[in-house]
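Re: [help] complex structure
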Amino acid sequence: MSEEQIKNLETQFEARIARDEKIEPKDWMPEKYRKTHIRQMSQHAHSEIVGMLPEGNWITRAPSLRRKVALLAKVQDEAGHGLYLYSACETLGVSREELYEQLHSGKAKYSSIFNYPTVTWADMGAVGWLVDGAAIINQVPLCNTSYGPYARAMVRVCKEESFHQRQGYEIMIKLANGTPEQKELAQDALNRWWWPSLMMLGPTDAESIHTEQSMKWKLKRKSNDDLRQQFIDQTVPQAELIGLTIPDPDLKWNEEKGMYDFGEIDWDEFWQVVKGHGPMNKERMKARVGAWEEGEWVRDAAMAYADKKQERKQKQAI
Amino acid sequence: MSDKKNWPLWEVFVRSKNGLEHRHCGSLHAADEDMALENARDVYTRRSEGVSIWVVESKNITASNPENNGEMFEPAHDKVYRHPTFYDLPDEVKHM
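Output below.
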């Protein structure tokens, strides 16, 4: 194809997206669109998969059967979300094995929030309430993104995600209304998860390299700073309602703007964790790669069994 | 034993309730059709979204190519006489 033809196709493509038409897997698309989507969707899928680890840590130690079944169901949902997203990603011509390889080799990123440890039961509350809360804010606009398979996966994910946040907040309510020790656990978890949750919504707009193009392709509908503000404005009253304090001395309602002013985020910490120096980066990858390698014989056995059954069927047919 | 092969890809179709058609809802990897059905149940019907599941190995699906959408679908565009609104009726005829 000549350069001019490609230019032409690109113009038509951008116009389709501007008209809110969806792009489907076999449609022509610019190479950059394909690559950007593989990157973002796989990063999203990896986050769901690695995201099972911090919470899986507490399943066997949940304080009651009610909490245990809920946590188990939540972690199972994360596995499901990872699978929807991997499948959507595969429609762009990348294989599942390549995607796993990118995660395991460290070439692909996942949400850095999962590189923090879950040290007490209250962390299950804080993760559901704050981390899933921030994730929902990130994800809801994606239900309308331009790439059909991604948008459809996100609709399923968002439908399931709201139980996650509620179960987390309910844990926080119970602890915050419990004994002084329990309330302290809840406050301590909020103290540790608040800032990483704000960072989860991504670098400030001035620092964000992908924003403009992603806005055009509807991979992003609001800027990181707008999403962060929305998260803060909706979460602060929820903390107040249960008598917990947001660990930010600069947090103040701004009457004029109708939103909260908040303190400086420690972006050095964010970049350190992104670059692999968070408290749990090594641990998470070790667990993930270990699970993959130790499961290899199971995958091979299943394939061998499938082949054997197939052969038997063919023999009977003769 | 077979030399290491990756689990093939399957497309999943779910009937949400009797009276409705099966609809494509996504895909997954599984070693064979039995496992594909079980995985489809766990991945796509965790909240009672279905009463029946079909799985088809993705390689068995033949799909039209959007590049040929012109020849494929345009012939229908100028055949407005296939729609009831093409025909003129007097206003007095209420239901037809």
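Chain A touches chain B at residues 24, 26-28, 73, 76-77, 80, 83-84, 87-88, 90, 95-97, 152-153, 156, 160, 299-300, 302-307, 309-310 (CB under 8 Å).
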